[in-house]
Amino acid sequence: MITTIKAQRVYDDVKMDPNTDFILVDRIWPRGITKERLKGVMWIKDLAPSNELRKWFSHDASKWNEFKDRYYLEIGNTQSFMDIIATAKQKNIVLLYASKERNFNNAMALKEFIEGNL
Fold first, then answer.
1. 32-63: string of b/e by CB count within 10 Å (b at 16+)?
2. Residue 107 CB: number of other CB atoms within 10 A?
3. What is this structure's pTM?
4. How far is residue 101's CA from residue 42's CA, in Å, rounded to a whole number?
5. Nearby residues of 21 by Cβ (< 8 Å), 6 or more positions away
6. Is the N or the C terminus of the chain less surrounded, counting Cβ atoms within 10 Å?
7. Residues 28-45: pLDDT tens digits?
8. What is the pLDDT of residues 54-79, one digit of tens each?
9. Rounded CA gap, 9 and 13, in Å?
10. Is 1 exposed, middle or buried (0-12, 13-18, 19+ CB in 10 A)?
């Protein structure tokens, strides 16, 4: 089975699909979003970068490649990452994030990392 992995901003219209796992990958719950609105969404904080790494990166495109390297070192051997790889082999996944930055954020980096490990 070929699965797809997408990253989507949590503030956009999230259309739930029973054949897809929706996973919030931020350490902090998104401001202004109710838990009811994201009913059925898994929240896996362990897949978010550490606060130190997140603050260092600050969505600076010039730090993108180094951010990804550091981020992958943080999560690469975690049970949460192993679990998401196993899920991605069986189901489609949508990684939800809150950042206004659509290209340089942890969900985009995580998407790339998952795809590279399938």
1. ebeeeebeebbbbeebbbeeeebeebeeeeee
2. 26
3. 0.93
4. 22
5. 42, 87, 91, 92, 93, 94
6. N
7. 999 999 999 999 999 999
8. 999 999 999 999 999 999 999 999 99
9. 9
10. exposed
